[in-house]
Amino acid sequence: MSFPPCPKQKITAKVNPSDEFFKRDTFPDVNQAAKQPRKQLTFLLTFTARRAIITSLLITALLILGGGVLANKDHSLDDKIIRAAYSEFLAYGFCKASLHKISEKAGVTTGAIYTRYKNKDALFVALLQDFFEAMKVMFAPVAKEYEKAMLSAKTEDILSAINSEEKIYFELLASHYDDCTLFFSRSDGSSVETMLNDLMEQKTQQTVDFFFRVYGKKPNADAIRLIMGSQFWHFRQLLDKHRDEDRMFACLRSILDFTNAGWRQLCLTLQ
């Protein structure tokens, strides 16, 4: 099912990289950290690897959770509203979904929804809160893979880290199919879509910086930007086509083989 474009909603809460969340001690300045004793080197590399390559899905989750975009989830919220919201957003996407229809399906008034969520966008993002938390946990170990790749500068280690990240995508699709559908394929017009666009640009720069740190040379930023965008497009296409799990994973494995060849050639070019 495809969804027509719709006007962007005014976003009431924005993710601002200059917010205090991004100035905490857990995110040290690279130049200052470089002057610290060697015992802090491992921490610096871990930080750099996390920010440079870890998937844009994890970065999205961290920014959303840290930037205060998510509404405070009311854990006493009637499950009927949650189920009705999932059903409506999955069927029609964010733009065409109706709070009135959600309230009808849940057997409550629209006022009952507004007392818990400021607007439709807040409800949509809140539905994904547990999903973002799950991504944060699932992607955390990948940082060690990229740390190893940065230290060794070996092509095989870089590809291994990329493959580890891709495998988590597979796990997400298998264990959180509906959430993935909302996130990748039904978020047009919501604040989630806006953040994805901004974060894709940030991911591009971080990836360019990672390869520069490894090889001392920068890859073509425009090409990297297209590669980052294609990751989301692959998932969206698979989810929109409603392919069965075996067929979907077979397709993703073929895509991984194809992209591996490209990453390998990029590494060889930069060496």
Oligomer: single chain
- Ranges where pLDDT stays below 50 over 5 or more residues in a row are 1-56, 61-75
How big a fraction of the residues is strand? under 5%
The overall number of domains is: 2
> Into which percent range does the helicity of residues fall?
over 70%
Mean pLDDT, nearest integer?
75
End-to-end C-alpha gap: 44 Å
Q: Find the count of extended strands (DSSP E, 2+ residues).
A: 0
Give the overall form.
elongated
The main sheet comes to: none
Number of helices: 14
- Secondary-structure content class: mainly alpha
Radius of gyration: 20 Å
Order of helices and strands: HHHHHHHHHHHHHH
Would you summarize the structure shown here?
Helices cover 71% and strands 0% of the residues. The chain has 271 residues and is an all-alpha fold. The chain is elongated, with a radius of gyration of 20 Å.
List the helices and strands and how they pair.
Blueprint: H1 30-34, H2 41-53, H3 56-67, H4 79-96, H5 99-106, H6 110-114, H7 120-127, H8 129-139, H9 142-152, H10 155-175, H11 177-185, H12 191-215, H13 221-241, H14 245-270
Helix pairs in contact: 2-9, 2-12, 3-8, 3-12, 4-5, 4-7, 4-11, 9-10, 10-14, 11-13, 12-13
Give a structural overview.
The protein has 271 residues and is an all-alpha fold. It has 2 domains: 194 residues, no CATH class; 38 residues, Homeodomain-like (Arc Repressor Mutant, subunit A, Orthogonal Bundle), CATH 1.10.10.60. Helix content is 71%, strand content 0%. The chain has 14 helices and no strands. The longest helix has 26 residues. The N terminus is likely disordered.
